[in-house]
Specification:
Family: Belongs to the YqgF HJR family.
Strand content: 15-25%
Protein name: Putative pre-16S rRNA nuclease
Number of domains: 1
Function: Could be a nuclease involved in processing of the 5'-end of pre-16S rRNA.
Oligomer: single chain
GO molecular function: hydrolase activity, acting on ester bonds; nuclease activity
GO cellular component, one term: cytosol
CATH superfamily: YqgF/RNase H-like domain
Strand order of the largest sheet: 3-2-1-4-5
Length: 142
């Protein structure tokens, strides 16, 4: 794994969660979700890539619990291919099973413990899921 900054994307039919992370600390933090209408907001994606200058991009691959593909899996693959073509950066796909469930748990825990004083907004779950995907990928790279 190259040292540096990485961006992760948690693809969804309405929003794409985003996160930025660092290979040195192997930590990540959520960023703002990107809207998806007929297609992703490519201007917002390009802005993130320009701002963070990542060495590679990580895209969560949504699979069912048994590892089979679901309806959103192929659109996520297309998004990853488009990301690679548009950015020229290497794109890594990673199994994202349970990332949204883990994000829900973390957000609920943050609210109940008082670490998060505001209500959970649309997009919070998506960003947390992208953070979880990125931290998982960074940990797997060593």
């Amino acid at each position: 794994m190259s040292g540096g900054t990485y961006l992760a994307f948690d693809y969804g039919s309405k929003r794409i969660g985003t996160a930025v992370g660092d290979s040195l600390t192997q930590t990540a933090r959520p960023l703002a979700a990107i809207a998806v209408h007929a297609q992703p907001d490519w201007a917002a994606v390009n802005k993130l890539i320009h701002e963070w200058r990542p060495v590679a991009l990580i895209v969560g691959l949504p699979l069912d619990e048994d590892g089979s593909e679901q309806a959103i899996t192929e659109p996520a693959r297309r998004f990853a291919r488009s990301l690679q073509q548009r950015s020229g950066l290497q794109v890594h796909l990673i199994d994202e099973r349970y990332s949204s469930r883990a994000a829900d748990y973390e957000l609920r825990d943050a609210r109940s413990s008082g670490r998060m004083n505001r209500r959970v907004r649309k997009g919070d779950r998506d960003g947390q899921a992208a953070r979880i995907v990125l931290e998982q990928w960074l940990a797997e790279q060593g």
